[in-house]
Amino acid sequence: MTGSANATRVLVLNSGSSSVKYQLLDMENGARLAVGLVERIGEETSRVVHTPLTGDAGKRERTGPIPDHAAALKAVAGELAHDGLGLDSPELAAIGHRVVHGGLRFSAPTVVTGEVLAEIERLVPVAPLHNPANITGIRTAQALRPDLPQVAVFDTAFHTTMPEYAARYAIDVETADAYRIRRYGFHGTSHAYVSRRAAELLGREPEEVNVIVLHLGNGASASAVRGGRCVDTSMGLTPLEGLVMGTRSGDIDPAVTFHLKRVAGMSEDDVDVLLNKRSGLVGLCGDNDMREIRRRIEEGDESALLAFEVYIHRLKKYIGAYYAVLGRVDAVVFTAGVGENSAPVREAAVAGLEELGLVVDADLNAVRSDEPRLVSPDYARVAVAVVPTDEELEIARQTFALVGAGPQGRDRAARTGNA
Known about the structure:
Blueprint: E1 9-15, E2 19-26, E3 31-39, E4 47-52, E5 60-63, H1 69-82, E6 92-99, E7 110-111, H2 114-122, H3 131-144, E8 150-154, H4 164-167, H5 173-178, H6 188-201, E9 210-216, E10 220-226, E11 229-233, H7 255-263, H8 268-277, H9 280-285, H10 290-298, H11 302-326, E12 331-335, H12 336-341, H13 343-350, H14 362-366, E13 373-374, E14 383-386, H15 391-403, H16 406-415
Parallel strand pairs: 1-6, 6-8, 9-12, 12-14
Antiparallel strand pairs: 1-2, 2-3, 3-4, 4-5, 7-8, 9-10, 10-11, 13-14
Helix pairs in contact: 1-3, 10-11, 11-13
């Protein structure tokens, strides 16, 4: 692994099945230098959107066929080079990759070696929609910069601190172990970042506080974090379990799947599509945009109201459950698209929980801001907070902390090729 002793930049890549999101950050000060997206990879209408955040240049967009991820990464490299931020820069310390599933082996950011990549591939059966795309992004980046450290940061890593009694499902142990069936949890990068930032907002160390983090986007998850360590989370073997989401059902009686196969004649793929893409808010009312659902409620739409009530009911159940798990709660923290921007969701989620010390201040809750903030009154026994998530910054931070700059960082990276 080579690179300048003064290298402080990290390129963060989030490779999806048909898209690549990216950000270039300078870890000397946490500044973003560029952000962008390549979408509809493999189509004639592929689109590249690139925004340099230094100098006077504005956002650039172009469309045209991008056949595969290799071409997509070359497009990213070209856009960065146009702004003097190319992948050949000696200031680039590493490339950090979001990898959705790390199983039990990877509990920390990990420099990618052949062995590490093989293990990520072995986990494809438990993350068939995500890990293959993550692997493609890593291999493509390796081909472009074979001398540069490639670091995998796992969505599941933060949740590996769960005690065994929280991670285990109550099924036959031999079967569970043979097929890696257990609670893994996801959105871990977000939960790690937000729980730490929540402690800072309270003026305390992460080791001193217990928080419930509610990551509410199109995908949604909750976590119980005691002293900076996850002790429970709502997503399980896959991201389907837990809260009501945009298109996913969340918790459901497993026998529903058997019933649909026997009575409705649905195949495994049919049930998979139903629960992952045609359920949740969109299944209940036809919309998965909370802003549109709230607009429809204000117009008297009963199906939108029911969808909202189902969503909030599930959310309250998890708040109460994780309150019991933690015993003492210092803050309930909302994050991600819905959590950060929907005041009605925050208000409804804690309504009626005053006996637990939870209440929001209507004026504070109505304020829109990109900064971490409290939305509970001073007298509240438990803080209610909004902390905007920043998964890219967290990936860059973890990547740079592992690789660092200069020979010491490279030696540390070489020693941590596995977790």
